[in-house]
Amino acid sequence: MRIADCNWADIEAYLTRDDRCVLPFGSTEQHAGLSLCVDAILAERVAVEAAEPLGVPVYPAMPFGLAPYFGAFPGSVSLRVETLLAVARDLIASAARSGFRRILIVNGHGGNAPVGALAQEIMAEDPRLSIRFHNWYNAPRTWAAAMAVDTSGSHGNWMENFPWTRLAHAPAPEGTKPPVDMALMKAAPPARVRELLGDGSYGGAWQKPDADMARIWAEGVAETRAALEGPWG
């Protein structure tokens, strides 16, 4: 269930029978022709669908993350590492103060990896808490399902192209894009990154059949639900 559909009394009642919650983390950054909010959209949606049968509350996705390399693409924003970690720490602390003890962080953006390390630090400080950091998109079963479709799955290409991340006014191009030089891109400042990426995709096909994407999504939801079910520390 979405926190947005609850009031404080609903959560107080919930906490008498369960102490789990979900904190999705995303990013607002260029995704070629897809929505700038792809990572937040996917993290929150997969969390909500995974948690719904279990009745576990899901917070709104944290929409901003670490994406300094996309700074030359208008609309992209990035937090500093210390800012993201401070926000994550405050969110976890607030959830714990409410009474949540088992917290699943569903992450939709690779740049947010430092939050996983922070979770370990927080558990060392507060042994009442059990925090799981779940990269939904490259968890083993979900990643295997994607690679069974095409091994080119990556940023801004078909792997992030779902009906709910597309923009009606920006249909996907036909064909495929040559892969970019990732080593060079990682060593380049934002303006050079934009030159290297062009439209923003890392290469490969821009879109795959919806039936293929539905299979990947179903695996992602199931694997996220399994993470929410445990085991917990």
UniProtKB/TrEMBL annotation:
One of its GO terms (biological process) is riboflavin biosynthetic process. The keyword Metal-binding applies. One of its GO terms (molecular function) is hydrolase activity, acting on carbon-nitrogen (but not peptide) bonds, in linear amides. Keywords: Hydrolase, Metal-binding, Zinc. It comes from the Bacteria. The keyword Methyltransferase does not apply. InterPro entries: Creatininase-like_sf, Creatininase/forma_Hydrolase. Pfam families: Creatininase. Its cofactor is Zn(2+). Gene3D superfamilies: Creatininase. SUPFAM superfamilies: Creatininase. Coiled coil: none annotated. Belongs to the creatininase superfamily. This is Creatininase family protein. It comes from Neoroseomonas marina. The lineage of its organism: Bacteria, Pseudomonadati, Pseudomonadota, Alphaproteobacteria, Acetobacterales.
